[in-house]
Design goal:
The chain has 937 residues and is of the alpha/beta class. The chain is built from 29 helices and 39 strands. The strands form 6 sheets. An 8-stranded mixed β-sheet has the order 1-2-3-4-5-6-8-7, sandwiched between helices. A 7-stranded mixed β-sheet has the order 11-12-10-9-13-14-15, sandwiched between helices. The chain has a 7-stranded mixed β-sheet with strand order 17-16-19-18-20-21-22, with helices on both faces. Helix 6 crosses helix 11, helix 8 packs parallel to helix 9 and helix 11 packs parallel to helix 12.
């Protein structure tokens, strides 16, 4: 324990689990006096060369004085951190605060010397880079702004750690030593470096789980049946290409195999390395299994065992301990209570799941937090991949169960640069770190489509998921996801519909749609569906029921050649006496026509044309394995066609849908996503404003917060703070008596408005609490008397007098800081449109100029701002600038936790802010700006 002379208590919040470059994990924590033996043991395992690089001289062992110095810290001026695996040190870093003379110092000195030592066996894993991020964050917390490090020129690895970190630095050479000095203030480059390292490490950690060289199934039963035995059978029958082992403590000592799979009583008995262990034992036995796996060097666990957070508080604590234990050995976990993982790559063929069949190989990545939804997704893709759409299958599948460790964020990191995945489909019931998810989703969506359906939208999170609560409505969260490029759908059917279209069809260049087919009625239904989804369809081309395959071919070629067409929907109904060969003929005609214009998407809407759907997929997808249909549920088996041959990589695969509405909805999502991609290619900017007084605002906020932890500012304080960001609120003076109202009007000047500001009347002009255009004292007194007679005494009404603003459209601008999602800017028209209909639009802060422009146009009532029905258009550029100023205020000063400007009257020229409230509070902790760390649920 620390001694009484230490100046600070043990800083537990500095503890963190991190993912290293090779995908393994390590724990970073402060070094204490209890670590003396660990430090000595660690030092003994460091090579003489590494010791020489650290101390600039031969230093074979640590003296007692050294051990005391390196384990006794005050956690302010002297700090040491260690990276541990299995409870043992693998690396250390420390800083010592120094003065301008280079000697030990205390605050306010803001410079420190920093030094690292990494065990040779762990060099090259990115341990030093992770430690630098954490020691820099600790130093900033303790008022240190600059690090200095002296490194021998031959120690190129350590020099690279400092130079690659992205901080502003100075470098000098003196007395045979390289001296590096660098500021600790994060820069755009240092943040980019940190996030790039995070992506590589987390992607690698998932890749190690999905492409293991050896898998052990722990809990594989001696007889068929049971979870463990089922997973073992699925791995074996799926053709897993690596080494496979069955592990069960109940096996007889002389048992060597189980159905041809090598059998062992413990992982420790396996003579070769094991990369992934599937754990299928009762929850009470899992800790022992984790210990055995950790000591054997297993890299990751897939825990299908139940009995954790989904079972209540006791299980939740059991789940937390499971994660702590696994991470202490450097292992990551899928689960617990997981359905499993699948990788269809021919080089892997991993089916470590409860799914009895390996899905078709393809280009779609699937992530599901629910096992039941995972089953439904795999089943639908199995049926649609060969029976209806003729598009592609699955690349990888992850069902995370309780998502105690590996989450959707980790899988997104993997999919981002996975060459085998073109489209990502996700079923999410909770988002543990919305800020990070939004950031990763935006980056992923810029490279490949990301389609998400959210479960538990109107209720609490599933019991097994421990997540930070959000106060944002589901509609707001959906809007923020769309802002990040996510294709948000509402059902599993829509998820599959959109995913299959995006997997192999090009993105449309615009919303213009050509419709052709052999049914006028089906064409009109498709036309109406296009209008409903905001597309711009041309009148349907009716080929009549007598149309031949050649007619379809000719019409499709013509439509695709039309420059006024961005996509084509082909509608088809069966003709009398139509047979399967004609289906195949039509399918080939459509495919050959589509190949003429490969840059435009083609969709098919069919009615009772199972033969056409099958023909569209023939020779253009990978069919199920032989015998798959016989072993599936009858409902699924009926939809599975005969096996098809593998398609060439460049095949033009045409998706087909059984209803016009489903095809058009999928196409509409593709159109919106394509538009987002085009806009994301030229991202907006957060503008600078010359009249912003950021420093003055910070001083004002600090002074106000000195009064207490959280407060709503008064009128004068609100106006003062907003004015420092160029936001001017039209003056309103209190009018507690008729005489005070007259005095206020004389000060402001007529005409004036008289308004009640009581909470139940505020912003409610419809209730009669506002009187406008009062031109003189007589009108003002009459209005005052009317308000008090209708609504009560002045002290209940809280009346104010305000100068009249130019006529315009009443709007509002708001920001809130949500504990989970971060700062959100909202906009809408004041009154019933937003309050009753929820017609609001939202963007994450900081808002760019592009964001502000789209925000104004995103609400359904936006036409009122742009000259609806002959009215004068209002000054939307001024409105956009106001939003950008509010965004800058909240982004620059996280202590500003809420701002409401209402009403903001936008006139044909200029605008007037008539009401404003601001709330200050200590800023909530940010989990996206500090050093890399794994979440703790």
């Amino acid at each position: 324990m620390q001694t009484t002379s230490d100046r600070h208590e043990y800083p537990a919040h500095w503890e963190a689990d991190v993912v290293l470059r090779d995908g393994g994990t390590a724990r970073i924590r402060p070094i204490t006096v209890d670590d003396a033996e660990r430090l000595v043991s660690f030092y003994e395992q460091v090579s003489d060369e590494s010791k020489y690089y650290r101390f600039f001289a031969p230093y074979p062992r640590l003296s007692a004085k050294d051990v005391h110095r390196f384990t006794h810290h005050d956690f302010v001026d002297r700090v040491g951190l260690a990276a541990t695996v299995g409870g043992e040190f693998i690396a250390t870093v420390r800083y010592d605060r120094i003065g301008t003379d280079g000697l030990p110092a205390s605050s306010p000195a803001d410079e420190a010397e920093v030094a690292f030592l990494v065990q040779d066996a762990h060099q090259g894993r990115g341990v030093a880079s992770a430690l630098l991020e954490h020691i820099a964050a600790v130093a900033r917390e303790r008022g240190i702004r600059r690090f200095a490090a002296e490194v021998l020129p031959a120690n190129t690895r350590m020099i690279k750690v400092f130079t690659d970190a992205g901080y502003q630095q100075k470098r000098s050479f003196e007395d045979g030593v390289v001296r590096l000095e660098f500021d600790l203030e994060p820069t755009d480059r240092s943040l980019a470096v940190q996030r790039a390292r995070e992506q590589r490490a987390e992607a690698r950690s998932v890749q190690r789980l999905l492409a293991p060289g050896a898998v052990a199934v722990i809990g594989a039963g001696r007889t068929p049946g049971g979870v463990g035995r089922s997973v073992l059978d699925h791995l074996r029958d799926g053709g897993y290409t690596g080494r496979l082992y069955a592990v069960n403590r109940a096996f007889a000592a002389d048992r060597k195999e189980l159905d041809g799979v090598p059998a062992h009583r413990s992982v420790r008995d396996i003579s070769e390395p094991v990369d992934v262990a599937v754990v299928a034992v009762p929850a009470e036995h899992v800790p022992e299994v984790v210990t055995e796996c950790g000591e054997h060097g297993v890299q990751g666990l897939v825990v299908v065992s139940a009995g954790y957070a989904e079972s209540g508080p006791e299980g939740r604590e059991r789940q937390r301990e499971l994660v702590r234990q696994a991470r202490s050995y450097g292992m990551r976990i899928i689960g617990p209570n997981a359905f499993g993982i699948i990788n269809t790559s021919p080089q892997v063929r991993l089916n470590a799941s409860l799914a009895p069949e390996m899905p078709r190989p393809g280009r779609i990545g699937l992530f599901a937090q629910s096992g039941a939804i995972g089953i439904a997704l795999l089943s639908r893709l199995h049926r649609r991949g060969g029976g209806v759409t003729g598009v592609t299958g699955v690349s990888t599948f992850v069902s995370s169960g309780n998502r105690a460790d590996v989450s959707g964020n980790d899988v997104l990191q993997y999919w981002y640069d996975d060459p085998d995945t073109d489209v990502a489909l996700m079923y999410l019931e909770t988002i543990g770190n919305p800020r990070k998810f939004t950031r990763l989703a935006r980056r992923t969506a810029a490279a490949k489509p990301l389609v998400v359906v959210q479960g538990a939208r109107h209720g609490g999170a599933p019991q097994g998921h421990a997540v930070r609560a959000t106060r944002l409505p589901h509609a707001t969260v959906s809007a923020l996801l769309r802002q990040a490029g996510v294709i948000r759908v509402d059902t599993i059917t829509e998820l599959v519909d959109a995913g299959l279209l995006l997997a192999r069809q090009p993105l449309p260049a615009g919303p213009r749609v050509a419709i052709l087919g052999n049914s006028e009625s089906l064409g009109l239904l498709t036309y109406d569906a296009c209008l409903t989804e905001g597309l711009r369809p041309s009148p349907p081309l009716d080929l009549t029921t007598e149309a031949s395959a050649e007619d379809f071919h000719r019409a499709l070629v013509g439509a695709l050649a039309d420059d006024s067409c961005d996509a084509v929907v082909v509608t088809a109904i069966p003709a009398v006496g139509e047979t399967s060969p004609r289906d195949a003929e039509l399918a080939e005609a459509l495919r050959s026509a589509a190949a003429v214009a490969p840059a435009k998407p083609v969709l098919v809407v069919h009615v009772e044309l199972g033969g056409l759907a099958e023909a569209l997929s023939a020779a253009a997808s990978t069919g199920p394995q032989a015998g798959a249909a016989e072993r599936l549920h009858p409902e699924v088996a009926d939809a599975v066609p005969p096996p098809a041959t593998e398609a060439p990589a460049d095949s033009r695969l045409i998706p087909a849908y059984p209803a016009a509405e489903r095809a058009v909805r999928a196409l509409a999502e593709a159109v919106k996503y394509a538009q987002w991609r085009r806009e994301a290619a030229e991202p907006g900017k957060v503008p600078e404003f010359d009249d912003i007084d950021e420093k003055g605002a910070a001083q004002l906020i600090d002074g106000l917060l000195a009064r207490g932890q959280g407060l709503t500012l008064g009128t004068d304080e609100t106006c003062d703070l907003l004015a420092r960001y160029g936001i001017h609120v039209r003056r309103a003076l209190p009018a507690p008596t008729p005489e005070a109202a007259l005095g206020a009007a004389r000060t402001i000047g007529y005409p004036v408005a008289l308004k009640a500001t009581a909470p139940h009347l505020r912003h409610r002009a419809d209730l009669g609490g506002v009187r406008l255009d009062l031109a003189d004292e007589e009108q003002l007194l009459r209005a005052y008397a009317e308000l008090t007679s209708l609504f009560g005494k002045p002290e209940e009404l809280r009346p104010v007098v305000q100068g009249m603003a130019p006529r315009g459209v009443d709007t509002f601008v708001r920001t809130v800081i949500d504990p989970a999602a971060g700062a959100v800017l909202s906009f809408g028209l004041a009154g019933a449109a937003s309050q009753l209909l929820g017609d609001m639009a939202h963007r994450l802060v900081p808002v760019t100029d592009r964001d502000a422009t789209s925000l104004v146009r995103s609400i359904r009532t936006a036409p009122l701002l742009f000259g609806w029905r002959g009215s004068d258009p209002v000054d939307t550029p001024a409105l956009e600038k106001l939003m950008l100023r509010v965004s800058r205020l909240v982004d620059d000063h996280p202590e500003v936790v809420a701002v409401t400007l209402e009403p903001v009257v936008v006139a044909p020229r200029g605008l007037s802010v008539l009401g404003a409230t601001v709330r200050l509070a200590p800023p909530p902790a940010r989990d996206d700006l500090g050093p890399r760390r794994l979440p703790v649920y």
